[in-house]
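hey all, quick one before standup. I had two proteins in the batch that finished overnight and I want to keep them in one place so we stop losing track of which output belongs to which input. First protein below, input sequence then structure tokens straight from the run.
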Amino acid sequence: MLMAHPAVLKDLVEQYETLWALHAEDGTAEARQRMNDVAYTLCVSTGTRDIDAALIAARHRLPGARVEDDSLLTA
């Protein structure tokens, strides 16, 4: 399976987290659609079927990820 470049995954995770923090799911139709689009792209990019699994998989591919506990090392 092809995997997205870590820079692409980082950007997608940041976009999704920003939309989630802004409560895009409760916002305008455009905001909800953008959130759904980013979630879908994350799922396709990580070979997963739901956003929670996609976020975990994407984070594991980012530089500095700790394999054993699903967190990122701080710089």
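OK second protein, same deal, sequence then tokens:
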Amino acid sequence: MPHTRTDTDSLGSRQIPEGALYGVATLRGQENFNISFRKLRDAPELLKALAQIKQASAAANRDIGVLPTAIANAIIDAATEIAGGEHGEQFIVDLLEGSGGTSINMNMNEVLANRALQKLGKPVGSYDIIHPNDHVNKGQSTNDVLPAAVKLAIYDKSYALIDVLEHLAVTLSDRARAFDDVLRIGRTCMQAAQPMRLGQAFGGYAAAIRRLIAKLRIARNEMLVLPLGGTAIGTGLGAAAGYRKAVYYHLKAIVGAHVSPGEDMFDAMQNADAFARLSSEIRICAEVIGKIASDLIILASGPNSGVGELRLPSVQPGSSIMPGKVNPVLPMMMQQVAFAVVGNDAAVSLASLQGQLEINHFEPVIASRMFDSIELLANSTRIFADKCIAGIEADTEQSLTNLLQSSALATVFVPKLGYAEVARLVQESVASKRPFIELAIERDLLTHDEVLMVVRESTDYHEEIA
């Protein structure tokens, strides 16, 4: 067959496209698991992490004398290229492959072996010189390489999420300052409760995001504790003496972070709770942002038939049949992202639960779902901050009208007017369907300026006195 080469494994021989750097294991993986939209080439952080681990492993095996220097250096050079973004088209295995990560690991091993052969001036497929398993995978197993790479990839990828969450917190804080003097009625159970300032609500939103960032950072740092060096089940069988110490020495320098082995390698390989913990923190971030989005939808409802206290930026017409209608599409986007992230977290939780005996072989779906959550939340949150939050305006007049028409203000005026007088005003207000503040001003019990002064004073934060 023209323009092909022959690669052989224990199941037989297959024809590989002549220019391909992958081999028969990759081809079988691609054929068996062509199921999703995300291939290994579509996960650049994972490709980078896998290449960095292979680079560190080759350097470690060279240092301890079990891999010839020329071969190790060729593998290191090839891995450096891949970590830098080259040869991405060679990684064709589906991220949801069902071999527990073996097809992903072998895709990397084969590409590295063949690219290293090219660097030595040897033909692709000359596995008697550099073998994907015997040389590139030396001292390793899919069982320790893949979860380690997924952890490093998520650590790398989640930086962008933390960055955009910090941007959201700053944007919310800016709106909090802008709205500091806007009086409004606070609501509980969708009913009027007590007066407050709109800036206080947005300040609360900003504080929530900053608190979540702190939690996210803690969980993210757990991604730097790796099972690498445990090989197949935690014993390290198959790795030469000194490999573990050497591979972490090199990996720290390559990654630029303080990676370390798990305190107990059997625990590190058996359990995926660190993934579940970080996934849950990402889910909680999505839920809180989704709740903020829901609040904005309520407060901007109307404009003439709802609460109408906020004006969201108009980014597109809202209806194909109702002229002039503008919908809160960006907050609705955030709600939908939250739904998707909750679903992804459920998949991660189930995958963590279903680990069996010495390993968890569901890291592919963990990687797929966590990558998806991070991308969805990071991309949508930046749009939400820039195109919605930053441009929100307060309808100060409507907010004040809603506040002053509410009988929930009654408690505020008890110290000035007395309980009995306020009670009579509220009762008359209900009977006459007029705001009780209007009645108080009409009877010269209060002036409009006094009302605003007392209400504003009531919105100041009161610490509990011990």
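Flagging for whoever picks this up: The mean pLDDT is 93. The longest helix spans residues 142-178.
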